[in-house]
Amino acid sequence: MGSGIAQAISTAGLNVILIDKSSDKLDAALKSINSSLERLFAKQKISQSPDQILHRLSTSTDLSSLHSADFVIEAVSEQEDLKQSIFNQLDTITPPHAILATNISSISITRLASSTQRSDRIIGLHFMQPVPLMNLVEVIKGAATSKSTFSTTIALTNHLGKRPCVSEDRPGFIVNRILMPMINEAFFALQEGVAIAEDIDFAMKAGTNQPMGPLELADFIGLDTCLAIMRVMHGGLGEDKYRPCPLLVQKVDAGWLGRKTKKGVYAY
User: N or C: the chain end with fewer CB closer than 10 Å?
Assistant: First the structure.
C-alpha cells in the first residue's frame, strides 16, 4: 500500500519520500513502482515517462527525513500499538503545521490522534488496493480533526485524481463495515460445507457481478488484515454478527495469509 500511495502522489506531480526500516524493501518498492509505471505508460494511461515520475520520489530508512514534510501518510499494518508508536515519533519530527494521516481500515482515528500533541491535524485516509488504479479514497475524520485539516485532505485527494468518500469515525468505516462481514460469511459458508471455495467465489462473481469472489479477495487483501478488521468491528460494535469465523482465525494462526505467503484459501 505504501509504495502504491507513493506512486500515486509522485504521478500527481508532488515530491514524496518513501520510508521503510529496510533498504531491501525500499529497493523492491522502487522496482515495483517502476514496473507499474512502465505498464501504465505503455498503455498510455499516464503521459509522463517513468523517469520523470520517479525523479520526484526519494527513499529513506530514517523517519527524521520527514523533518520538513507538509503531509505524512503512514501505511504500516493494521496494528494500533504500532501506528501509535509511529505517530508519537512523527509528532516530534515533523513541523507543527504538518498533517499526519493514516492509511487505515478500521482502527479509531480519535484514539490515534489522542496519543499526539496535534489531534486537530490527524486524519484517516483509506486507499483502495491497488492504489494507482482504484479511484476511491475514504476520508475519516476523528473527533478533534479540524475543518482546515479536513479541507486540505480533500484537496489533496482530488489532486491525486481520486474520489473522496467521507466517513465518520466508526469501526470499519464504510467499505469494510459492509465488505468484511461478506468475506467473513464466505468463510462460514466454506467452513460449514455449503460449497467449495471455487464455487463460492464463482457464485458471487457471476451472480452479483463482482470482479473477485470474497475468498479470492480475502487472499488478495491478506487474511491477517481481514481478521484484524473483523476483531476491531466485533470489539467496537459488540454484536455477534461480527464474530470472526473460526476457519479464518485458524488460517491466520497457521501463517496462511493469502497471496503474500503463497497460501491462504488458495495456493499460489
Answer: C
